[in-house]
Amino acid sequence: MDFCGKKVVVAGFGLSGKALCKVLLMLNAKIFVFDSENEDKFGDDLKEFKEKGVIFCFKKVTDELLNGTEMVVVSPGISMDSDIVVLSKSKGIDVIGEVEFAYRLSKAPIYAITGTNGKTTTTSLLGEIFKASGVKTYVAGNIGYPLVEAAINANAEDVIVAEISSFQLETIKEFKPVISAIINITPDHLNRHKTLENYIEIKGRIFENQTADQFTVLNYDDKNISSLFKKAKCNVFPFSRNRALEYGTYLENGKIIISANGEKSTIIDIEDIYIPGNHNVENAMVASTMAYLAGIDIKVISETLRTFKGVEHRIEFVRNVNGVKYYNDSKGTNPDAAIKAIEAMKGPIILIAGGYDKGVSFDEFTASFKGRVKKLILLGETKDLIYKSAIKEGYSEDDVIFVESIDDAVYAAYNAAKPGDNVLLSPACASWDMFRNYEERGRLFKDAVNSLRG
């Protein structure tokens, strides 16, 4: 792609937007940045880019901003009905997202993973498997390292393993991973996607450009994914925890088995997988399958599964204080993810939950408390919604504590806990009502836990 001297508008000046600016500067483009926030929000972040000739426009989209623009590249946080997108499209300007831009730029093959839950763990695990096989690997995308930075740095002989969100899939056009996967789909981000059907359709876009010589790995057990099987033009390689498959990945006698081309290969006994929980068995099945289809030796796959210790903010053990274990699951940003964290705990749970309202139901989440959650500590925008749902499911109002901060939540949990209990931060909500992101929420939780007297 030749961007020398061409006007490109970057919409959104967050992590993706800054990375796009850096790469477009390397490509000698004429860069304009639009953000709907006030300029003073960004402080010193603007100075570096202004000195390099980047022009900024805030709050309102103007004709001057879009005049002569050849491309608008939107960050994931920019919705498709925003002014910058609608006006750009009305003028016939090519509107794409960072993932699409990175794909067009990349020389390296991309292995792409989406799903409602488990994306970060599976992406990290597959990245570790590739690294263990001796391939230079970039783990990027919705995982915190912008895909566009990986794309500009990776060579043709390298590999990019990418976590892809539904927000990022909204803006693809040509994006075509070598192997893709959808781990699972449960209701999430309905405040943006409006309906579960829209959300499912957007998730399915991950394989829409893949061809007959390529693979997508799909969850055979997930009823929300069943409609996508027939839509794939590429090879569908299913996985199932519940039944044996003639062609696909499944469990047999407690082992992960891959059956393909008339041969069965045993990957690992699930008891030997280092990271706990049934949900992580699924994550291991997906990563193993993608690695197997990429031609990686089974011994490398199984050894990585034995040693991979998981990711920060996902059922992350923080500390044992007076016989009470504290776990950071700030990555549990929807009810299904939080349910999986609750199910992974051994022993009574003091649960810290609540956060930004994404328009989903909490009834299945609160129904999972029975026999597991002894105290419920609530904070954030959704605290009343979760409380009402919990009471409706028969949870005792005497066991609910309302707090205003993470520090207060940790101290309330500390006072309520007894040896053998687990204090679990698994909010079932996004973090944007009180924090910049789930990482900040998780770090503050860990700071509070580490300040407790043992």
UniProtKB/TrEMBL annotation:
<feature type="domain" description="Mur ligase central">
    <location>
        <begin position="113"/>
        <end position="290"/>
    </location>
</feature>
<dbReference type="GO" id="GO:0005524">
    <property type="term" value="F:ATP binding"/>
</dbReference>
<keyword id="KW-0436">Ligase</keyword>
<feature type="domain" description="Mur ligase C-terminal">
    <location>
        <begin position="313"/>
        <end position="429"/>
    </location>
</feature>
<keyword id="KW-0131">Cell cycle</keyword>
<dbReference type="Pfam" id="PF21799">
    <property type="entry name" value="MurD-like_N"/>
</dbReference>
<dbReference type="GO" id="GO:0008764">
    <property type="term" value="F:UDP-N-acetylmuramoylalanine-D-glutamate ligase activity"/>
</dbReference>
<keyword id="KW-0547">Nucleotide-binding</keyword>
<dbReference type="InterPro" id="IPR036565">
    <property type="entry name" value="Mur-like_cat_sf"/>
</dbReference>
<comment type="pathway">
    <text>Cell wall biogenesis; peptidoglycan biosynthesis.</text>
</comment>
<feature type="binding site">
    <location>
        <begin position="115"/>
        <end position="121"/>
    </location>
    <ligand>
        <name>ATP</name>
    </ligand>
</feature>
<keyword id="KW-0573">Peptidoglycan synthesis</keyword>
<keyword id="KW-0961">Cell wall biogenesis/degradation</keyword>
<dbReference type="InterPro" id="IPR004101">
    <property type="entry name" value="Mur_ligase_C"/>
</dbReference>
<comment type="similarity">
    <text>Belongs to the MurCDEF family.</text>
</comment>
<dbReference type="InterPro" id="IPR005762">
    <property type="entry name" value="MurD"/>
</dbReference>
<dbReference type="GO" id="GO:0008360">
    <property type="term" value="P:regulation of cell shape"/>
</dbReference>
<comment type="function">
    <text>Cell wall formation. Catalyzes the addition of glutamate to the nucleotide precursor UDP-N-acetylmuramoyl-L-alanine (UMA).</text>
</comment>
<keyword id="KW-0133">Cell shape</keyword>
<dbReference type="Pfam" id="PF08245">
    <property type="entry name" value="Mur_ligase_M"/>
</dbReference>
<protein>
    <recommendedName>
        <fullName>UDP-N-acetylmuramoylalanine--D-glutamate ligase</fullName>
        <ecNumber>6.3.2.9</ecNumber>
    </recommendedName>
</protein>
<keyword id="KW-0067">ATP-binding</keyword>
<keyword id="KW-0132">Cell division</keyword>
<keyword id="KW-0963">Cytoplasm</keyword>
<dbReference type="InterPro" id="IPR036615">
    <property type="entry name" value="Mur_ligase_C_dom_sf"/>
</dbReference>
<dbReference type="GO" id="GO:0071555">
    <property type="term" value="P:cell wall organization"/>
</dbReference>
<dbReference type="GO" id="GO:0005737">
    <property type="term" value="C:cytoplasm"/>
</dbReference>
<dbReference type="GO" id="GO:0051301">
    <property type="term" value="P:cell division"/>
</dbReference>
<dbReference type="GO" id="GO:0009252">
    <property type="term" value="P:peptidoglycan biosynthetic process"/>
</dbReference>
<dbReference type="InterPro" id="IPR013221">
    <property type="entry name" value="Mur_ligase_cen"/>
</dbReference>
<dbReference type="Pfam" id="PF02875">
    <property type="entry name" value="Mur_ligase_C"/>
</dbReference>
